[in-house]
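mind reviewing this fold:
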Amino acid sequence: MTDAATIAHRYIALWNETNAACRQDLLANLWTEDGTYIDPLMQGNGHSQIDALISAVHQRFPDFRFSLIGQPDGYGNQVRFSWQLGPEGADGPIKGTDFATLDDGRLKHVVGFLD
């Protein structure tokens, strides 16, 4: 059984990591090598492209942090969770919901929706 909360917390930690070397370690442990990410604004395939997407978010929103909204849930190899992006400790102006497919407990595909 998938622990949706653990996956979601690790995913948010990855997106919040500003140290490139630490972020690459988190990425390698959380995602399959051929993992994919897609949302209405960007998409990436594999660790290097997903890392570049995360880095671009840090460059565009240097003082913002991701945080979870509500409780992640899932079943089988599927996980769903909502998040916000904004100043730490404040209501984030950017919100969304991500749907993830896992492969052996690691992210394989993530599809993000902006609310």
